[in-house]
From TrEMBL:
Transmembrane segments: none
Assigned EC number: 6.1.1.5
Gene3D superfamilies, alphabetized: HUPs, Isoleucyl-tRNA Synthetase, Domain 1, Valyl/Leucyl/Isoleucyl-tRNA synthetase, editing domain
Annotated Pfam families: Anticodon_1 (PF08264), DUF5915 (PF19302), tRNA-synt_1 (PF00133)
Matches recorded under InterPro entries: aa-tRNA-synth_I_CS (IPR001412), aa-tRNA-synth_Ia (IPR002300), Anticodon_Ile_ABEc (IPR033709), Ile-tRNA-ligase (IPR002301), Ile-tRNA-ligase_type2 (IPR023586), M/V/L/I-tRNA-synth_anticd-bd (IPR013155), Rossmann-like_a/b/a_fold (IPR014729), tRNAsynth_Ia_anticodon-bd (IPR009080)
Protein's name in the database: isoleucine--tRNA ligase
Coiled coil: none
Segments forming domain Aminoacyl-tRNA synthetase class Ia: 47-681
HAMAP family in UniProt: Ile_tRNA_synth_type2
GO molecular function, one term: ATP binding
Domain of life: Eukaryota
Biological processes, Gene Ontology terms: isoleucyl-tRNA aminoacylation
Amino acid sequence: MAAAAAASGAAPVAGDLPESIARLDGLASVLAELPDRFDFPASEREVLDLWKAVDAFKKQLEYSKDRPEFTFYDGPPFATGLPHYGHILAGTIKDVVTRYATQTGHYVSRRFGWDCHGLPIEFEIDKQHGISSKQQVLELGIDKYNALCRGIVTRYCTEWENVVTRMGRWIDFRNDYKTMEPWYMESVWWVFSQLWKKDLVYRGFKVMPYSTGCTTPLSNFEVADSYRDGIKDPSVVVSFPIVDDADGAEFVAWTTTPWTLPSNVALCVHPALKYVRVRTSTGKVYVLAEARLSQLFPAMNKKGYKGGEFDVVAEMTGAELEGTRYEPLFPFFKEEYGETGFRVLADEYVGDDAGTGVVHQAPAFGEDDFRVCLAKGVVAKGQALPLPIDESGVFTAKVPDFAGMYFKDADEPIMAALKASGRMIQKSSIVHRYPYCWRSGTPIMYRAVPSWFVAVEGMRDRLTANNAASKWVPEFVSERRFHNWLASARDWCVSRSRYWGTPLPIWASDDGEEMVCIHSRKQLAELAGIDEASLTDLHREHVDRIEIPSKEGRGTLKRVEEVFDCWFESGSMPYAQVHYPFEGEAACKDFEEHRFPADFIAEGLDQTRGWFYTLMVLSTALFDKPAFKNVIVNGLVLAEDGQKMSKSKKNYPDPLKVVESHGADALRLYLINSPVVRAEPLKFSDTGVMQTLRQTMLPWYNTFRFLATAAAHLDESGTPFEPSAAAAAASANLMDRWVMAAAQRLAQYVRGEMEEYRLYTVVPHLVAFIDDLTNWYVRLNRARLTGREGEDEARNSLSCLYEVLGLVTRLMSPFTPFFSEWLYQRMRAFHPARNSEESQDVWGSAKSVHFLSLPEPDASLLDEGIERAVDTMRAAITGGRLVRDARAINMRMPVQSVRLVHRDAAVVDAAKVMEEYIRSELNCEKVEFSTDVAAWCSTSVVADPKVLGKALGKRFKPVAEAAAAMTPEDVEAFMATGKATLAGEVLTEGLNLTRSFTGDAARYGFEFVADPAGDASLLVIVDCEITDEMRRSGLAREITNRVQKLRKTCGLISTDVIHVYLEPRPPTAAEEAVVALHEAATSKAAPAKAAPSKAAAAAAAASSGADGAVSKKAAKKAGKKAGKKAAKKEESAAAAPVVADEWPALDTATAAAWARMALAENAEAVKSTLRVNPMPLAALPKQAGVIVREVAELPMGVRLEIVFTLETPLASSATIAAAAKAAGVEAAESTVFSALLARDAATLPADGATLSLRVDGATLPLVVGEHVFSAPSGLAKAAASDWAAAGFAELAAAYSASA
């Protein structure tokens, strides 16, 4: 059944294991499907099928149900749009932490939630149906409007589930919560009723940020991050003539909101500021703050201002101006506010940093305006305000001159009217920051609206205290951003004059004197005298018609029309998602003891003024507790150019395309291993994801592939390899001990950091360990792992590698759940426990790696001594490589000695332990050790001016001089104690050590590297003098390197047993001519390297036949071009400094002799590396099945002919056999061909004389006769006939002649 599903391309149904998993049984089955090029996305799809087949997430929950609970709250997103990288990032963080919590002995319920109410939904409906006013909604009907909203709430739920699942996140979509469910809404009512009981709810006029596009007030935290820069607005100064003033004086006030001027009913000054009455050169008299005269007379700001524009007539304080009456700007509110308004008020909020020091008051449109006018009796509590703008931002008939105009559009007509009336004193523009509605994109106005508020300001101390009780990662978000927000928290407007939301559960009499706050459906049914069973929906269309009889004889109580701000609903989710407190006493007790506060939440930095804030306010108000114990805050994911990701700009790649290109694991690891987990911004890069794949995922895969291949080689001995934890733990090998200790140290570190929720420190360590495993343990132990040091050593080292890979897989599984699962299934296939009775927590037996617990670190395997020794070894090897790079000494060239010098004998002793590894890695004859630092370098102390200059001031100079005069004994004492007394100053910082090499720098290369303590004091000295014997040893390594590269090119695996035949020889004349002509023909892409000899050119011409295709002229031309390049190369080489390892140029006969001598002198090393004894070409049997034949160019002019033959029939290599089959050739017929057929299908001649290989955009070998040359990229075929068709007639003829 599974096979049929796979064949049809359909995913297996639950219960059917994917075929690739079902057939895994033993090492051979694993090895059969380990390709060179691993397809991570395809492997992830296989794992998804596996999880579905075994119902992995549900099983994990079942297996862990009796463990202590780890509580996680998932903030509900809106489903009206598709998930973006911000959602993927937050979801990955949540998945990592909850998987880890399960790993470490907890039960973790994970429910997905949906935010279903509020402006995001309504705004979509308004756009679709052209709704722009409350009247249009009422005409349509609230029931129909809400039905439209309900219809789009779950529009993208399926897409969300697909993306979340494809990213590897385990969360319950079947048992999700939706804020529109009646049981959820009922708990929201309960939350509000508790605030009501605590007298934390009030109704009042308050000037709030108001969205005309959404026709509703907004919370302050919704506006805080919605400011736009570079907004251009009018900047005007207008006059207010003082009533009955003898001089005709006028107050002048500045504003950037001309649209508020028709609503002006007062002016405000600062009581303590100094004001002046000035007469201008035109005779006008103005009153304004003395400090703000430059607003009217900007020339005052210029240097050398001489005055003359005005005279000060009088001075007074703001307090003296209070009560002064003035003429209204417009007549619209003169009758209504003629007695209480149009006078000067005084309040300290007025400043002298901008404007004129006189502020115009429009109490309906300014928070301070409303407060001051109410306090001074201009307006009265409960009285209508001068508010001539409707809910959509349009002027009403109260101001007939501007009726029907949108408030921002009215600026110009209002300014024109003021100019016409002579009240416009100054007009310009200002560019500043201005808030816009985050949903509708319309400009925000501040407007007095009747709203319901939660009194937050009185809770500030408790909010900050509860915040301090929560752990924030990173800490600065809590200590600065969130703390500051809470410390200045303002009363929260929780109501919206909208329709699609949870209705406020307040029923009130017509006069507003009797109010009831409902806490449950049961209470509403009892008070209204209806059946509770009828309350199946609590939206407005169902509850607005319900009336409650008054208990005070005030008729009936009707529900107030507002609904809750959706932030109130999401802030109520800890209680509402479990229908608290309506599920019985036991459920309430369980919630209070085990599910509140949450152990963990995570969201983006923007939620500090959103969900984090509402959670904290409500939990503090209800229980005086924080709603969460631990929170991870991530930064913003930006486009690669640093801009916000924008669909319209198309400045970011589709997340699913990235996943299908590189895999979800690579994307997860890239995001988690970035600054964004420290609440910093991340410029997303597809290249970064690809690098994560190449630098971490591929080496991890290749390490396992190496393990499986080496283990399969052991199987050939007759005793199948079975990993043994006991053998791994008991191994005495230094590198085995190190890797086992380092793995336990890693596990210990991961546990410690994950307990602190510092994902940004964990992932770099995991990634670094995978690199260490590949580049240090496997590379340094390749001989042991592949059996070259005996079968027992191989089994021990492979067991170590298996155990460490297993632990890494467990540690990585929360971060890379797909590949960890894929790898576990393969490792399980050859584990002794694979056929034992299933246990969900036993490696090899469990059906998923995600069922396994993370074992406690094994302290018995920790070994600080060997860890320090390996760290020292790595430092020494790194230093030695740096020296070789600086001196241009190839690693294949041996050096006489490497000396390690350190003042601490313990460091030297640690290096001695790893002497053999150091010698091998640095390819040196011997390693020497010394503690006599003075014999090789001098050490001095330099005072750091950046650190000490500012602290010491004038005392720095004598301190610097004293530091320079320190004796070697003084320096030694400073290094030992970290303290020095210089010029009377006791210093522990600001003194830097500088070291200078005093040895023979011409002969010795040196490098100072950091020792295990982090101090750059380990001196690595390399003797760079190269002898002829060393050159021959280097040449032997060059030979083995070419052979190994050819093995890789052929696609051979370690189980393919081959014979190698080598023959150093000079080139034939025909070969030399062909190479020269080939290079000449392709000189534009790759210029020729050397000119052919005259004899070679002549031989090529002679061999071309009667047609004369290769002319002397062509050969001469080719030689000329090659000669020019050779001359340039020689000139460049002459100008460059001579380096120690430069190979001497030899004639061809001497070069061949050198190569034979190199092979003879280093026969054992060559044989050990190649795992086969190379034979001379003369020993090649005539009927041998040749795999490949290549002529390689080596240093000193050595030309090496290499031939591979298979020991066993061709079919023994699955790779080569498959290629032959694809070419339509029976294995038995093949005699000569390139194993590149494994990658590129080609015609395969039966006689094997010439090969035609397809070239796929890259340079691939071309077989001509028995030799391999380089073919130019871009040609469809490399057959001689196609060279001619491509315009290379001369070269085609030469190839034919050579063959």
